[in-house]
Amino acid sequence: MISIEGVSMRFGRFAAVDHLSLSVAAGESLALWGPNGAGKSTIIRCVLGLYRYGGTIRIGGLDVLRHGKDARRLIGYVPQEIGFYDDLRVHEAVRFFGGLKCVTVRDPETILDGVGLSGHAGKRIRELSGGMKQRLALAVALLGDPPVLVLDEVTASLDAVGRDELVGLLGGLARQGRAMLFASHRQDEVHALGDRVAILERGKLVRQGPPSEMLLAGEHAGHLKFHGEVHHV
Amino acid sequence: MTSCVFIFATISFAWLQPPTSVGAKITPQMKNTIPIPNPLQEKIRAAAPGDTINVAAGVYRGELVIDKPIKLVGQGRPTLDGGGNGDIVTITAPGVELRGFRVSGTGIDLDKENCAIRVKAPHTTIEDNFLEDVLFGIDLKESPDSVIRGNHIGGKALDIARRGDGLRLWRADRTLVEGNEIHDGRDAILWYSSGVIVRNNKSHHCRYGFHLMFSNGVTIEQNDLFDNSVGVYFMYSSKLKLIGNRMLRNRGPSGYGLGLKETDDYLIKGNIFVGNCVGIYIDGSPFATPNSGLLTENTFAANDIGVTFLPSVKGNHLWANSFIDNFEQVSILGRGELTGNEFDREERGNFWSDYPGYDRDGDGVGEANYESRLLFENLTAREPSLRLFMFSPVHQAVDFVARAVPAVRPEPKFTDYYPLIEPPVKHGVDLATAAPRAMAALSASLLSLALGVLAIVFAGPVRDALRDRAHFRARAIGGIA
Amino acid sequence: MFDPNKLDSKSAVKMSKSTSTARPLPASSRESTPTSTPAFVATARALCVPMRAPSFASNVFRLAARELRDAARSKWFLLYTAAFVALGLGVSYVSAASSGGTGLSGFGRTTAGLINLVILVVPLMALSAGAGSIASDRERGMLAYMLAQPITRLELLLGKFTGLATVLLTSICLGFGVCAGILAWKGLRADPVALASLVGLTFLLAMAMLGTGLLISVITRKSSVAMGVAIFAWLTLVFVSDLGLMAGAVALRMRIENLFALSLLNPMQVFKMWALVSADTSLDVLGPAGLYATDTWGGGVVWIFAAALSLWIVLPLSVAAFLFSRRSPI
Known about the structure:
The complex is a heterotrimer. Chain A has a domain at 1-74 and 179-186 and 194-233: 3-Layer(aba) Sandwich (Rossmann fold). Chain A is 36% helix and 27% strand. Chain A has nine helices and eleven strands. In chain A, helix 5 runs parallel beside helix 6 (160-174). The radius of gyration of chain A is 18 Å and the shape is globular. By secondary structure, chain B is of the alpha/beta class. Chain B folds into two domains: 29-375 and 405-416, Single-stranded right-handed beta-helix, Pectin lyase-like (Pectate Lyase C-like, 3 Solenoid); 376-404, no CATH class. Chain B is built from seven helices and 39 strands. In chain B, the strands form four sheets. In chain B, strands 2-5-8-11-14-17-20-23-26-29-32-35-37 form a 13-stranded parallel beta sheet. A twelve-stranded parallel beta sheet of chain B has the order 1-4-7-10-13-16-19-22-25-28-31-34, with helices on one face. A twelve-stranded parallel beta sheet of chain B has the order 3-6-9-12-15-18-21-24-27-30-33-36. The longest helix of chain B has 45 residues, at 436-480. Chain B starts with a helix and ends with a helix. Chain C is mainly alpha-helical. Chain C contains 14 helices and one strand, in the order αααβααααααααααα. Helices cover 80% and strands 1% of the residues of chain C. Chains in contact: A-B, A-C, B-C. At the B-C interface, helix 6 and helix 7 of B face helix 4, helix 6, helix 8, helix 9 and helix 10 of C.
């Protein structure tokens, strides 16, 4: 579903992504793992067509740079934090983004029920907690039943409870056979959600494989191992 | 055969054209043709002096010369048609009366001064005639004590440089010009004609409404002068009275309601100057008689400039005038101060709509002086092209800076020591049609457009919420069932 | 237009969906789900009825409606509108008072005052609305989120332009509506047609300045910088350029036709001159330069103003669209 071939992205002289090639099959989940500045977010933004990168990215066969609008119709995207239209009510937000995704939302409440936001439809977005906002973002991402889900550090600004709830939702209803590409710096999430993990360092792919082989049990240890690898390369 | 066709074509072509373009399309061959004798000429030859000839309705083509003191009276407005060629009526005997005709179609030769009614004798009365498509309208030469009354004089639709004078008086002292309407001509001009009274006339779309050259003791009162280049221009004349006239929208490169050039001893009273480029333009007047310029009880409103003085003009007294919302109330062309002119008489000044002061003791005169010292006006006086920036915020900014920073504040152009609080004479003139109903409709439609948008903005969420609630209720009922 | 790439993608989507529904869910993830997954998915799919692909126009409309609602509830809109209405009230009251009871006023002061008011307030409102929009979205992280939706950048930009233009139109209509109400109530002799055309011209000026504001917003990273640039642009257009031109006209003894041509570069000047003409005022009010314009073009000078103002609407917006689609910072 997602194919990334030789993608590079530079900000000035700094190469955020450097000749990276990855692919995610239908139904597969790929975790992007690495320290801050490794290029996780950048590659995700490239996949969304937000940057003018070098190389090729295709979503379901659609070139992101040439057919960005159609390619994005296949993607549900959850950012680290949503900051849109604070005054908007939750059901209005669902309707609005549904409209952009060519989906007529007849009953936002049912959709919100699914992500555990029952009874919050009439609230304004600024009244929601961080976890609720992220679940709303997930509900929006799932509108129109896209075959691809792209997540960028979705739990980074949540507390432990919120994180667990969101990861639970993501592992369950959100997967549903979708291809998933997500960036995370938490090993437990990678283990819980990823079929495969790609380890990035300075915009380059260091190695990829099943999480159990790539990462040690502890997050801290994982960092150690990771750094060791890099030094040897 | 071919020439026959040509003539026929020419005639039919001329027949189809409106009279104005017939005049314009005269060929040289036609000009040189011998004038056809007018059928009325025979009647005049047969008449005795003092006779009255009644002329029946109809069209009488060709030139007509009236050389006897007779009355020629049209019944049912007969037409004297010049056919777009030369003069039409020439009066050579004194005491002639011409009344009730339609006179149209003079030539367009400015050198020969083609004229509808040429008068060369005194004591002539020209009354109730309708002149149209004429180069010169009524031309009085050496004909004092005449009466020009109730005529309509419509010029040719030519470029202003090719037009003639609608009315011209040359050495026609004591003539009365009353109740005429003159339009689309060059000037109505008085040369060396003293003691003339010009009353209740209308002049519009001409160059100069009334133009005085070396004419003394003339009274011009109750005339309407609008949409000319200049309403009234006094040049090299004296002992003039301009009373109760209305000068509207006289515009153009030199668009003046009234121009004064080297004129002496004038009284300008009770006139209204509205929407002109310049209300009154004063150039070298008074010229020979000191302190002989009197301007009082006039209203200057919505002119670009109320009164313009050329530098070194002195000897004018302005009191009890109203200056209302002129873009510039008083200006001096170039640099200088109006020191030699006075803006009050007997402790009464003028009304200025931009006077910021107030009347503490209730005598109708403001306590603070009215001073005109705006920097922008000062700049435009020196550099007229800067008027391009009028109405821009920079205009206000310049004046504001000058008010705040005394160093750049110009000296006052003039000072009115006794500014009036109320306009001394209230002239009412319709500047634009007051249309409160249309204005209210405009207001209502603008407001409803805006409120409509706002209603949509704020009603949308409400509608959504109501729909959701209805949906939940339906679902809840379904669940219970 | 036939596009094999799209065709492939659609079949790929279908395939992936068929495989996804066929594939059994991993047991672990099903257990960790708090809600009953298949039921939710079923209802969600039933409730979300896919429409035809959203066209360019429908997306622009949606985004415009969103922007309109957001902006109409914002503080800046309330503030500027209140200021505009209050000043409009002031202008009409002052012109009512200044006639001194002669009924002679109505034209000069009202028109001049309104023109001045519009030149001062409306461009500031439009510039800051435009400059604030994209830059503040960018700062809130909203721009990236919006662009991650299936919309194009041009749709987003035009949606914002349309929405904000509607908000400005609302504000202008409120201001002038109140003003016209006062004039009608006080029975002042002012021409409703002239006032209506002033409203139209004001809207054109607002759109020109809105496009310029959006351009500023596209090229600056921070909203504070965008606001600063917008205010600078306003100062330049309202005061600095005119003062510069005035100084230039005097110092260089500029020819009248050059002065007039240069003044056409400033949308405020074009607006002012056009408003004067539409209020039935001859341009010779503006001295030699205005006389030159009247003599050279007569009534056709309106077309020059129309062209100049249209360029001011189209050009900044086009440049903004071009730069924005060149992947400006997000």
